[in-house]
Design the sequence.
């Protein structure tokens, strides 16, 4: 009778291989059971969005930290979805999180939906536009009062309109 023993290196190699395979699978946005008011084909989204915005909004990509001019935006205004122009956040809820992405402690009413995101080892909460399902970023429980939440958003997922 042979006994198989799982070594630490075998476990690490297997885990790394599984993660690498998972990383190359295409990701789509929004919950599969959800329907959205604005629904377009990938070709239609590609015509509407820049390649970088398509990658973030439609493929749940992430821009590099500190790369968005919206991280440094301090004027009063509204942040809307770059995919469908739905108003998502007010500048009155924006704060400096020090993370490199525009952060807000609350969205506007009926603007953002969330779902569980298991794309990395640690589960997270993904935030997406309730009208088009566009991926915006993630929500964390380390924000300021009054909500204690940090909506950490990709700047390319947003459009800013000054008030």
Sequence:
């Amino acid at each position: 009778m042979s006994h198989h023993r799982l070594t630490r290196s075998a476990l690490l190699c297997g885990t790394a291989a599984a993660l690498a395979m998972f990383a190359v699978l295409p990701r789509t946005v929004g919950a599969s059971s959800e329907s959205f008011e604005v629904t377009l084909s990938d070709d239609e989204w590609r015509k509407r969005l820049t390649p970088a915005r398509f990658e973030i909004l439609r493929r749940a990509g992430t821009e590099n930290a500190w790369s968005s001019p919206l991280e440094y935006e301090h004027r009063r205004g509204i942040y809307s979805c770059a995919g469908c122009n739905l108003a998502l956040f007010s500048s009155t809820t924006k704060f400096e999180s020090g993370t490199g992405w525009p952060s807000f402690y609350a969205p506007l009413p009926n603007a953002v939906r969330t779902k569980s995101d298991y794309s990395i080892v640690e589960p997270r909460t993904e935030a997406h536009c309730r009208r088009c399902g566009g991926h915006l970023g993630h929500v964390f429980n380390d924000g300021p009062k009054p909500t204690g939440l940090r909506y950490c958003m990709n700047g390319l997922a947003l459009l800013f309109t000054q008030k």
In short: Residues 28-162 form a domain with the Metal Binding Protein, Guanine Nucleotide Exchange Factor; Chain A fold (CATH 2.170.150.20).
